[in-house]
Each structure stands twice: as structure tokens, then as C-alpha cells.
Amino acid sequence: MSTVSEVPRPPLSDELLQRMDAYWRATNYLSVGQIYLLANPLLREPLQLAHVKPRLLGHWGTTPGLNFIYTHLNRIINERDLDLLFLAGPGHGGPAVVANTWLEGTYSETWPNVPQDEEGMARLFKQFSFPGGVPSHVAPQTPGSIHEGGELGYALSHAYGAVFDNPDLIVACVVGDGEAETGPLATSWHSNKFLNPVTDGAVLPILHLNGYKIAGPTVLARIGDEELAALMRGYGHEPIFVESDDPPAAHRLLAAAFDKAFDAIAQIQQAARQRGDVTRPHWPMIVLRTPKGWTGPKTVDGQKTEGSWRSHQVPLANIGKPGHLALLEGWMRSYRPEELFDEFGRPKPEIASLAPRGERRMSANPRSNGGGRVRELRVPDFESHAVEVPAPGQVDAEATRVMGAFLSEVMRVNMPTHNFRLFGPDETASNRWSDVFDVTSRTWLAETIPDDVQLARDGRVMEILSEHTCQGWLEGYLLTGRHGFMSCYEAFIHIIDSMFNQHAKWLKIIREIPWRRPLPSLNYLLTSHVWRQDHNGFSHQDPGFIDYAVNKKADTVRVYLPPDANTLLAVTDHVLRTWNRINIIVAGKQPQAQWLDMDAAIRHCADGIGIWPWASNDEGGEPDVVMACAGDVPTLETIAAVDLLRAWLPDLRVRVVNVVDLMTLEPADRHPHGLSDADFDALFTTSRPVIFAHHSYPTLIHKLTYRRTNHSNFHVHGFIEEGTTTTPFDMTVLNRLDRYHLCEAVIDHVPGLAQRAAHIRQTLHDRLAEHRRYVDEYGDDMPEIRDWRWSGHGVPAAGA
């Protein structure tokens, strides 16, 4: 086991130790003030109830430990001139990080209404967890932050995402012992197997064990150093243990541990960069044990508080209780604020001088603000990858394979700038992006054997079978100003629902902060989707992620359902050029009919929605029915249904409307891409039936269109939670999305048609029965389904 006792001499002079301890006391004082005080920030008069907030919110337990770490990292930056970023994994560490950013001046630079003086300190205190103020997390409002910590488990994956392709950057990532119990965090320890010490920066994990969660002990705090060291070594780290509840001793121990850890990082990088050492290193990490609620009240009402779960949130929550106000005042005065701040409330020079200068301050690091500059992605000509479509529906292609060829070119042209990576849970090849392996490989620094293919230390395809880790890496990469794309099976993108949610909230807030730079968009390809998961069955059949996503703010989320390869290319080109968005593309990977040539696809995607004239026969008049579709399989079944209708009911006027950009269905006053009411009515009419075949759950279309004039005539077919291991067409039949059920819906809803189309209805029932028998006997779809092509005029059916 590695311990700091191996360090031959203490690195701190007594004078520096005393100044650092004063700096730590100042951050602790500022943190307690944020939790409690409404006024009297420097305690210039005896504390009264009127000086205390009416609602006491926040978390003290983790805060002094975070302040302790931050103080020591400042010393390291000053002595070594390091490019260092700080990530606070503990969810409610906001008071600590805000305190440090104010003390080193960045907070007042970004928020001039909170200056470094007594008035600014009062505002700093009042705004914390206060209406109209700042939350208790390390939110986007906090300079230097790329990680809020509102939801636990993602700090380490964010940290690694930030250092990929940032060779000079080191991220000091504090992992709380509660956070260490989460599944995403447990997997993210493996990120060091993907870290190239030549081209990437480094992450220093600091496992902060204060022993308790809200009301009970934490696992890693109770397993002992030997077992914990074995666990961390198994993850590929060399742990350095620090434990003390005595501040002077703890200062010396942590300083020695940091010196050892940063020496080790420098040695690893030097060996790789100067000597070409390709051995996968065991990176250093710190295990820091400190009391929970350190330096706070030892006991409250006779019960142990410091060093127990009782200090997790607000140790003195009932300040009106006899003796509690005096206890709070004594606690705050124990930090000796008169030694820390001058008569104007400014940090004294001997305190302020310990903070790094300029962009070396962790709160002013440009990496934490979109990389400090807008780095455009080079996007090559996507039209050169177009599928030749001589006529609608006459050729097949694998849409995502075509997309993969385009992304390989994107990868190639951006290789010199190290500005683009692909992410996904072991599905790059499965999702038909294999062409990227002609340009790069999968990133891999663990062991290899001769049979391995497409693995390389400098690979730029990030694969690990953890959606959480892939998402966290990608977020960290984007938050520091680079670009990326993630592919995932549609059903399992739900694994990162809450991570998506947190990132969407981050994007919403940074738009409201003037000093926050725009971020490259978070782009998803969801494939292996619900309608073509026939071999995996019901477990893999869930299209609901887009239903969840559209609940986010309209200026954040976009959902695209391109019906073929050329529209997918046009959409991909578009999303790669966007900023501050979450773009969700859903597209199938199986061979499927292609509808639009490239020129038509570009025009269609530019509008996001439109009539397909070649499939419609209502030109010059109002249609009898509108056949709408969104998604590749719904489009196929809609066009096939129209083909049948034109053969069986040639006088029926049918309009086909295809939707690529799902958000066009919303009103223009609710979404930037939404159609005006006039444009919507022009497409869907104000009174005619609309049979809408939709990729996801039918309720989503109703939700998006409920305010439209003709909403009562919308009849939506989509996934109705029917699935199994079956054929592709049978999946649509089970969910009433198939061509026969769509034709039946037309007969049911076009006025007067049911009476004169009784024989056609019978034919539809017969076809469905025949389908059922054929599938059950042969395990495949009928030839008329498998071999169907759009004819443009329909093929009369027997008996029709």
C-alpha cells in the first residue's frame, strides 16, 4: 500500500502551512455564511435571528473537505504552473466551490454585482439556495464548472471526457463516497484504459471518504484500507492514502500526497511522450479520509455532529431553538474572520496571494467554458455520399451505413485538429458505422492479442459497454469545446435518460448566462430501432426516448426521423453544424427502400416537413384523406398503403405528407421549428381525416398537435407496446402500423367510404389472416411484402 510516509520530507514550510490554513478557514467561513446568513456577513455585530435566512438549505458535510482539497490544488498550480480543472462530484458541494471562486476573484469578474467586498459577500450569502439566486450544486452559474453534480455518478466520466485530446490539462476529480456507490461511477473507473498519455491529459481521482450519506455509512468508508487499495489497484490506479482529523497534520499529509501524485503524472507523461513507453500505467489517485462536517459543531443538543451523518445537511437546522443561534455564532467566529478579511470585507493580501493568477485559476480555466474559444468542426461535402435514386422506392440501401461513410470522412478531415470523436456502447460496427475504421480505430490501452482488430492507442472511436460512461465521456468532451456523435440501440438509450436530462438543463441555463460560450451540440443516432428488432424481441423494442426528450425546452431539443439515406445525410450534415442543442436522429440500419434523390432530400430536410407530390394524387384540389408519416418504417408502410389505395380506389384523392423534423408539428409560438397555423392547415387541411403513421407512441403526435385546428381528425398509428420475436412486417401488424391497417383506417374515417368499400375491407382482413398463417408456418414475411416496390399506380389485388 502506498502511503505518504514514503515522502522523505514535508513539503510545506510553517509559514506556508499557516497561510494555507487561513485560506481554508476563509473558504469554510464563506461556505457557512452561504448556508445561514441573510445579513451581517462579517459578524460586525452580535448575531441575531434577523441575520439568518428563514429557510436553511444546503449541505455542510462534504464542504470543508472540498475546500481543503481546493486550497491544496491552488498550491500545486502555483508551484508547478499547471493547467488544472476541478470537478466536484459530491452533489451538494456548491457552497465550497462558490466560496473558492469568490475568494480567488473569478466570481466577481463574471458576476460584477457580487464584488469582493462586504456588500458582495452579503449578496453571495443571500443568493445561495434563495429565490432568484443560485442552487446548492456547482451549477452553470459557477465559473469553472463543467459538472453540476445534481445527480451523482458522472464526475469521473466527465473528467476523462474533458482530458481526451487535451494533453496539457489535468482534471482533479473529487469522488464522494456516496457517489462512489453508484453504477455509473463504478464503471467509469475503467476510463484510464482509454487514456493515451501521449495525446491526452490526465485525471487525478480524489476519493473523499467522510464516512456517511444522508443517514447511514458509505460502503467504501467501511471496507478498510487494504481491501480498498486492492479494489483501486484492480481498477488500474495506485492509491495514496491520507487520513487525519488534525488540520496541521492533514495539511502536511495532503501536500505530500499531492506532490507524489503530480510527480507520478509527470513521470508517466514524460515516459510516454519522450521515451515512447507504451506500457499502460497505473495512474495515481488519492484516498482522503476526513471527518464529515469537519470544523463544524462537535455536538448539537448532546448528539455527535462532526464526524457523523448529522452534519450531512444543515447541522443547526432549527436556529430558533434555545442556544442554537449562539452555537452558530461561535462556529462562524471560530474561523476568525477578522484575520481573513480587511475592513472593507476584501480578502487580506496574504490570503488573496495564495490564489493562482489569471487563467491558471481553476474557476477561470478556459477549458471550463467551451474550451475558451469556438472551434468549428470541418464538415466535408455530404452530397458526394448520396445514394442514386432513379425513381422513388426502386432501390434499397442501409441508411446508417451511408451515414457511416460520411462520418468517416468527417473523422478524416478533423484528424489534424483532434477535434472529433465517436462514442457508443460496443455498437459502432453493429450500427453500420464500420467505414470509420478505414480512418481510425477503437481507442484501447489495455492488453491486446494477435486476433484483435481495429484497436489502437490513438484510436478515436470510444467504445465501452456502458451507456453511462459513453455519455459522460461525450459530455465532458463537448463541455470543453470539442465535437462528437454517439450511436446507441434505441431501446437502451433510456439508460442515460437522466444524464440527457441534466445536460439539457445545463444547455438551457448557459443560454441565460452572458459569459458562457456556446457548446457543440450533443448528437445521437438511435438505430437498431423498434421496428427492426425482430430477432431480439420485445426487450429491444422501445421507441419512447423521443417522447421523453420532447419535454425539454424547445430551444434545446430537436428530433429527426429521416425516411431514407439521403435525408439522413442531409440531417447529419445539419446537426454537425449546430451549437447548444441536443439532436436526436432515429434511423434504421437494415436495407430499405429509398425515396428521394439528393436534391429532393436537401429541399425536404430544409423544410422539415412536406407533401410528396409523386406519392399524392390531390394536386389542384383538396384531398379526401391525408396520409402522414414520420420515420423510415412508417413511411414504407404509408407508401405501400397509398399504392394499394390508388389501385383499389383510383378516385380517392390522397395527399402524402412526410415529417423529417418532428418539431415542425408544434405551433410556431412553442418551438423555433414549428409551423405556423396557416402552413400547418395548408398541409393537413382543416377538416379532412389524417391517418398518421408514427415511429413512436401515438400519444406523442397528439401531444404535439392538440392545439391545431384539425386535431380532432388526426388518427395516429404507432407503437402500442406490442412486440415479440417475429418478422419485420409482423411487428407493424401487431401494432396496427402496417399497410393493411392503414388502408382500413382510411376506409373507416373518410366520410361515405365504408359503405362502398366493404369488399376492400374484406380483402384487407383476408390479407392479414393470410399473413398470420404464412408467418407462423414459414417464419418469414410473404413474398408480396418482401418484394414490394412502389408502382405509382398500384397493383390490383385478387378479389378486389
TrEMBL record:
SUPFAM superfamilies: Thiamin diphosphate-binding fold (THDP-binding) (SSF52518), TK C-terminal domain-like (SSF52922)
An example Gene Ontology biological process: carbohydrate metabolic process
Entries under PANTHER family matching the protein: PHOSPHOKETOLASE-RELATED (PTHR31273)
Molecular function via GO: aldehyde-lyase activity
Alphabetic keyword roster: Lyase, Thiamine pyrophosphate
E.C. code: 4.1.2.-
Matching InterPro entries: Phosphoketolase, THDP-binding, Transketo_C/PFOR_II, Xul5P/Fru6P_PKetolase, Xul5P/Fru6P_PKetolase_C, Xul5P/Fru6P_PKetolase_CS, Xul5P/Fru6P_PKetolase_N, Xul5P/Fru6P_PKetolase_ThDP_BS
Pfam families, A to Z: XFP, XFP_C, XFP_N
NCBIfam families: PRK05261.1-1, PRK05261.1-2, PRK05261.1-4, PRK05261.1-6
Designated name of the protein: Probable phosphoketolase
Source species taxonomy: Bacteria, Pseudomonadati, Pseudomonadota, Betaproteobacteria, Burkholderiales
EC category: lyase
Similarity field: Belongs to the XFP family.
Cofactor(s), by name: thiamine diphosphate
Residues in Xylulose 5-phosphate/Fructose 6-phosphate phosphoketolase N-terminal domain copies: 12-371
Membrane-crossing residue ranges in chain numbering: none
